[in-house]
Structures are given as structure tokens and as C-alpha cells.
Amino acid sequence: MESKDLIRILQIKPLVGPTRLIVNMRDIRYSWHDFVSRNNHNALTILSLWAPVVAIYILDVHVFYTVISAIWSFLIGARDRLGEIRSLEALHKLFEQFPEAFMNKLHVPLPERLGFSNRSSTQVSSLPDCCLQKYA
């Protein structure tokens, strides 16, 4: 048995007895009787008792999925030789090509970002030369 399983048992087992006791209690008068309805077997009390344990389980599942997903993605990428650079010269060449690839693939020209494409060509050409060079 793993230590994590032992911790989970130690978290759950002490809550089972009080949960049964609370469910079997009758005629509990709450000070907020409008918020806590009658004849619901003290559901909100039980919910408040178990909510931290459920939250911890959800967090554990999320962390487990993240770690497994990262390991699986690494193995798939290694199998497909994703991002493999075979020599120092190839690395140097890729660094030289990066600015050009960035401008070609990711960069949006400024006139398109500012909405100049909606204007007619005469309005764009009426900009000063310094602005046209910057936007070209």
C-alpha cells in the first residue's frame, strides 16, 4: 500500500462515522432555517464536511493528469524527433533564420492591426513618407 493511499484512508475513515450520525439526526434547528431547509437529511452540513476532501481529490487528479500528459508528450516528441538539432552549425543557422521566420509567420503588419486596410489606398498613400516606411 502506498503512503498516498494510507493518507486518503486516514482522511476518509474519520469522516464516515460523523456523516452517518449527521444523516440520522432528526429535528435539528438551525439559526438560518431559511437557508438550510428541513427534511434534506442535513445535506449542506455533510457537504461542508466532505468538500475539502473532494477538493483535494480533484487537485490530485489534476496534478496526476498534468504529469502523465507531460511525460507522454515528451515520449511522443522524442519518438518523432521533434525539435531535434543535430549539430552546432544547424543551431547557428536556425538562430539566423528565426527573425525572418517570425516576420513571415507570426508578425501582423501594423496597417492591418490599426485598421488601415479598411481605408482607401489614397488615404494610406497620403501619410508622410516616414510613416509609410515604418508601416511597409
Give a description of the structure:
This protein has a domain at 3-84. The protein has helices at residues 3-24, 43-79, 88-105, 110-113, 121-125, 129-135. The chain is mainly alpha-helical and 136 residues long. Helix 1 (3-24) packs antiparallel against helix 2. The chain crosses the membrane at residues 49-76.
Notable features of this structure?
136 residues, mainly alpha, elongated, transmembrane
Low-confidence stretches: none
Biggest sheet features: none
| Euclidean distance between termini CA atoms | 67 Å
* Helix fraction by DSSP (H/I, runs of at least 4): 55-70%
Beta fraction? under 5%
Count of DSSP helices? 6
Tally of strands: 0
Shape: elongated
Short description:
Keywords: Membrane, Transmembrane, Transmembrane helix. The chain crosses the membrane at residues 49-76. The chain is mostly helical.
